Amino acid sequence: MKTLKNLIIIVVIFLALAAFFSLYQNNNKTVKEIGISDFVAKVRNGEVTQVTVKDSSLEFTTADNEKFTTKKETADSLAELLKNYDVPADKIKDLKVEVKTDSGLSGWLGILLPSLIPLLFIIGFFWLMARQVQGMNNRAMGFGQDTASAEDDKKNKKDKKPKTTFKDVAGAKEAKQELVEVVEFLSNPKKFTEVGAKIPRGVLLVGPAGTGKTLLAKAVSGEAGVPFFNVSGSEFVEMFVGVGASRVRSLFQKAKKNAPCIIFIDELDAIGRQRGAGLGGSHDEREQTLNQILVEMDGFETNAGVVILAATNRPDVLDSALLRPGRFDRRVVVDLPDMNDRVEILKVHAQNKPLNKDVDLHRVAERTPGFSGADLANLLNEAAILTAKRNKKKISLDEVLESIEKVMLGPERRSRVLNEKEKKITAYHEAGHALLAHKLPNADPVHKVSIISRGTAGGYTFKVPSEDKHMHTRSYFIDELSVLLAGHASEKTVFGEVTTGATSDLKRATNLARSLVTEFGMSEKLPPRTFGDREELIFLGREISEQRDYSEKTAQAIDKEVDNLIINAYAKSCDIIKTEKVMLDKIANALLEKETLEKEEFEAIVGKK
Ligand code: ADP
Ligand code: ZN
Q1: Sign of the alpha-carbon torsion through 576, 581, 583, 588
Q2: Please, where are the H alpha helices in 258-325?
Q3: Are residues 458 and 595 in the same domain?
Q4: What is the C-alpha to C-alpha distance for residues 323 and 268, in angstroms, rounded to an integer?
Q5: Contact 342/368 with Cβ under 8 angstroms?
Q6: What range does the domain containing 10 cover?
Q7: Most ligand 1 atoms within 8 A of CB, residue of 215, 230, 267, 336 to mutate
Q8: Backbone CA torsion sign across 20, 24, 25, 30
Q9: Cβ neighbours around 568 below 10 Å, total
Q10: What distance in angstroms lies between residue 222's CA and the mean position of ligand 1's atoms?
Q11: pLDDT over 90 (residue 560)
Q12: Which of 368, 402, 371 is nearest to 385 (CA)?
């Protein structure tokens, strides 16, 4: 794109110059060129007032202010020339003569320039192109990030700024225990090498996004007081072949110079995928980068004092070569925080925020199952922003609760005004979800129902499991399916037809039903196995390819099972909605009146679950 722009600019400049030159030459043509004998004749007649002599040409002006030029032999001087033509001496005397030596640089330029300019342009063009490519390379090769962090570290040492330590990482007890070893080694390697202990070279931090893997790596460097170099695997994806590898080389060189230190590779799976499994150009690059990492890891001594930490949430796709002994042979699992960890994390992030007394962090933790550390940090930040917006001095429970929903579902969109009819449909739709969630024994209880649109959803029913769940049962999923389909069922039962409001519910229900059959082995008709081998490919962006590892006949059986699950769940929804129509009306009317029902208000209508 940029090259094209440059090209256009160059062409425009070139055209402009060409126009200029042709004009210049036209100008020249207004000066008439005449023969030497005519010139002599004019001198003899006394018509010539002024002559300028350049090496081989004469320019002269006549009495009536006309300009002429003529050629002469270089060797002859003007006086000699006129004498040779027998011009009377007094006429020669009257002539005003100016001599310009043309033999200098300007003379040569005058001759060379016209042929040089196009050449210069071509050279300039190539130079620009080359520079651009180099610029890209430089950008790709630049260690902006890691030099910055290394410098930060030096500064930290000087300024005694607070470093990240294990105290900043709440929860994650097991992970910290494992990493304490690395800290000890980095701060006192002798202790280990003297007894012949081999030090881990690479530690793989495995866990979902936002669980604090980067934070842990920084804490290790902070605890040990060593520099921290970091790169992200995703940075390598768009590079030219070979650049990634050379970047890895200089990163390791720099690390060795600064040993003891930590190299942190974020998103290792972006480069460390199984080799030979990709497609397209980025694949070659990835392979070379990966190979270089392997070479570097094997290359340095165990006691060089460089420990490599890497983060990934997909250890299953990593190339097995990366996981061999002497490379990333240690795994530290960093999981989503449980209830107690969430309280701890909230405490860490609430430290510099003034909380009102009514904010009970335990209650906040209860309401946020499945939140990562990053989500929790984000949640408290949103609450603080909301508080500032409302010109309050302290964050109260209201703001925190509102922020939970914002983080989970996206911001409220009060601006989307529904007309009366739409409002009624949405009320019955959400009432359907809420009613089913209340009635079905295995479904999560309702925390809040609302017909205010949020993110992409028209309204929402907010359910929270009564406790942290690490596993789900089949009966939970079956009930969940009915709850998902209840919006559709309610619209259909009450209004006789459905709207587009149920679209995303249907999609989620279908995906859930399919997962039940193909992933969880929860179908009663099909054998307990998985169907289809899903693989994520990074090729022209992200896409999922599914490889079929079953026959056409099985495919039909799967479809049939998925249909059955949906049909049965839907029938259950319709059943309950019909038999509990009175309660449904009550919920819908309350929603129309108040727009949002909190848990207590909802339970006042339907009773306790
Ligand atoms: P990851 O690298 O696993 O994606 P990060 O380390 O980048 O996650 O975490 C992002 C942010 O979330 C951190 O900067 C921190 O503010 C917060 N965070 C995550 N986990 C924790 C935790 N256990 N304790 C405190 N803060 C956490
Ligand atoms: Zn719905």
Answers
A1: positive
A2: 281-299
A3: yes
A4: 12
A5: yes
A6: 2-104
A7: 215
A8: positive
A9: 14
A10: 15
A11: yes
A12: 402
Q: What is the pLDDT averaged over residues 150-179?
A: 69
Residue with tokens 């609302």: 450
Predicted local distance difference test score (pLDDT) of residue 172: 83
Q: Which amino acid is at 437?
A: A
pLDDT tens by residue, 571-592 = 999 999 999 999 999 999 999 9
Residue nearest to atom 14 of ligand 1 (CA): 215
Do the beta carbons of residue 408 and residue 438 sit within 8 Å?
Answer: no
CATH of the domain at 364: 1.10.8.60
Rounded mean pLDDT, 5-15: 72
Nearest ligand to the C-alpha atom of residue 176: 1
Handedness of CA 236, 241, 247, 252 (dihedral sign): positive
CATH of the domain at 480: 1.20.58.760
Is 211 a domain residue?
yes
The number of distinct structural domains making up the chain is 4
Cβ atoms of residues 438 and 606 within 8 Å: yes
Q: Which residues fall within 8 angstroms of residue 328, CB to CB, at 6 or more apart?
A: 202, 203, 204, 268, 308, 310, 318, 322
Question: How does strand 306-312 pair with strand 261-266?
Answer: parallel
**pTM for the whole structure:** 0.63
Structural tokens at position 416: 């989307």
- pLDDT of 17 over the 80 cut: no
For residues 368 and 361, what is the distance between their CA atoms, to the nearest angstrom? 11
Cα(543) to centroid of ligand 2, in Å? 27
Q: What is the pLDDT at residue 148? A: 39
Q: Angle of helix 243-257 relative to helix 281-299, nearest 10 degrees?
A: 20
Distance CA 561, CA 554 (A): 10
Lowest mean pLDDT among 134-138, 160-164, 180-184, 328-332: 134-138
In which residue are the tokens 């001095």 written? 393
Q: Which atom of ligand 1 is nearest to the CA of 208?
A: 3
